[in-house]
């Protein structure tokens, strides 16, 4: 939801920062790795019960993730490899943060309560898989009530007000499950018309191929001019 509505304004706002970072010699991968390392620190802080410190580190871990795309565009180094690396690190960071919360619950609440963040993580992984699989099929699967940006904001709110952490995670689980259903329906609906779209694409490809063959044939049969 936030990604769809605020992505363009945020990208525009951080564009000058990306241009400034380009002069430092840093690469987008450097920022991605930095965000992961800070995320590891946040997970350990949360697991140890230092929720406020964990909150600060979660925010700091989000900043490199926000700026690596701007740096990639400013330095003209955007690539499929970088996008894949960034997405993988995002999933790993999410798992670490929720794992830290699970450890905190097991220590401070009850072992059974630690299953709650694991449930959020499991449904979140379904959402990520749905998008990845849909995009590999040429289908759009973005959107939903609880994407990654919303999950990070919700976690930050729970860390800021610890008494709300458990209720927030329950809300996250419900909204994340709804998001998984939303994406399933969206992809299922698009996939219903996918054969028609594929047929049109194949028709256009066939026409282009026929034109290329015709041009090649004309070149072969063209009578060369005699020198005067």
Description:
This protein has helices spanning 2-22, 28-47, 51-74, 80-108, 115-136, 148-160, 165-192, 194-221. 81% of the residues lie in helices and 0% in strands. The protein has 228 residues and is mainly alpha-helical. Helix 1 (2-22) crosses helix 3, helix 2 packs antiparallel against helix 3 and helix 5 (115-136) packs parallel to helix 7.
**Distance between the ends:** 71 Å
Q: Using the alpha-carbon principal axes, give the shape.
A: globular
Largest β-sheet summary: none
Low-confidence stretches: none
**Tally of strands:** 0
Helix and strand element order = HHHHHHHH
In DSSP terms, counting alpha (H) and pi (I) runs of 4 or more, how many helices? Answer: 8
Q: Which band does the percent of strand residues land in?
A: under 5%
Which structural class fits the helix and strand makeup?
mainly alpha
Question: What is the arithmetic mean of pLDDT?
Answer: 82
Helix coverage percent: over 70%
* Estimated radius of gyration: 24 Å
Short key terms for the protein model shown above:
8 helices, 0% strand, mainly alpha
